[in-house]
Amino acid sequence: MKKKIIITLIALAVVFYVFSAVNYSLKPKIALIKIEGVISDYYETVKLLNQVRKDDSVKAVVIKVDSPGGAVGASQEIYRAIEKLRDEKPVIVSMGNVAASGGYYVSAAATEIFANPGTITGSIGVIIQHVDFSKVLDKLGIKVNNIKSGKNKDILYPNKPLTPEQKKLLEKTVLDVYDQFLDAIVKYRPIAKEALKKYADGRVFSGKQAKKLNLVDKIGNIEDAIEEAKNKSQFKEAIVVEFKEKPKLLEELFGSEISFKGLPMSGMYYLMSFWHYS
Known about the structure:
Number of strands: 11
Largest sheet: 8 strands, mixed
Oligomer: single chain
Strand content: 15-25%
Number of domains: 1
Radius of gyration: 24 Å
Order of helices and strands: HEHEEHEHEEEHHHEHEHEHE
């Protein structure tokens, strides 16, 4: 008799669990995704954006951006994923402390952008750096030979100065990628490209200034962005669920974040200098 009672209780618990899981999976949701820090590793973010796009229970998405930018390719990968997402459901960006350069680039694809009045944004531009250690190496008596397939294969190597021709080549590439940045902004923002060029010179703006320039839509915090997402989705009772990357095995074992992410030694970036209140 006691055994039957235990089996019945277990069966009821299983049924309740399955019912609750199904009920939760069908409940309307506002997805929250965070893009934080330097943008370099885009794969997990793109995967999350695709996941919420395909999830029918997700009625709108809020993306919290707190980033000074990062690698060009990574920023463009995320931008494209947000583009696909906005075609199917509202995407609201909430800018935190900093959403500049590549952080602004990914934000520009959203349906609507919120910023705090003191958010640092803008920094629209492209940078590529070349460090010349050739004189230091000469003083140390170190000679480095680059065996290369073409005269520009070692264009960014630090053991030699840039030639005038190589500098022009890099400037041409930077301006091409800069033009891509402008096109990405004016595609969805109510700004004419020629007007944008006047202040898209790398300068930063406060959220309040950015709103006057139509770089953002509204002044507000993360709660305001969530409320807007609910309104646009017409599901005011939707629950907010954060979608985030699953922890790696080592992180689960040691109970802390272990990261090998970072920018490569050389490359092209939508990146601003770090900003903070001191």
